[in-house]
Inverse folding.
């Protein structure tokens, strides 16, 4: 499974961004997809995750601000981010779970200025 993210960038606090991730390869094996982020000096953390059945879960810090969606026909997962805060600044990684394996994209930088 290969994952390619797009859509990161620089935005002012309160603004919005949309991240997208395109999956290719053995996509039939994917159970769930998600977004993680890693800020400098911090551990990578889950932002949002969506299963094949559409069940979602979010980090408490982004609930009500971020929405994850998945288009199985297009093999994409997106993250709509609104009400962005400086503490949302991080490299965002797309992930795909396939059995016991987790695959990662290369990451896309999101920077929120105050």
């Amino acid at each position: 499974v290969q994952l390619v993210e797009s859509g990161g960038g620089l935005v002012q606090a309160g603004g919005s961004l949309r991240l997208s991730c395109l999956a290719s390869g053995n996509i039939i094996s994917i159970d769930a997809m998600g977004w993680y982020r890693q800020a400098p000096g911090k551990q990578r953390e889950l932002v949002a995750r969506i299963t094949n059945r559409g069940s979602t879960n979010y980090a408490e810090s982004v609930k009500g601000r971020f929405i994850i969606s998945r288009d199985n026909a297009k093999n994409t997962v997106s993250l709509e981010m609104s009400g962005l805060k400086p503490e949302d600044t991080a490299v965002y990684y797309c992930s795909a779970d396939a059995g016991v394996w987790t695959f990662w994209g290369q990451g896309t930088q999101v920077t929120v200025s105050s």
Observations:
- The first strand starts at residue 2 and ends at 6.
- The radius of gyration is 13 Å.
- The chain has a mean pLDDT of 96.
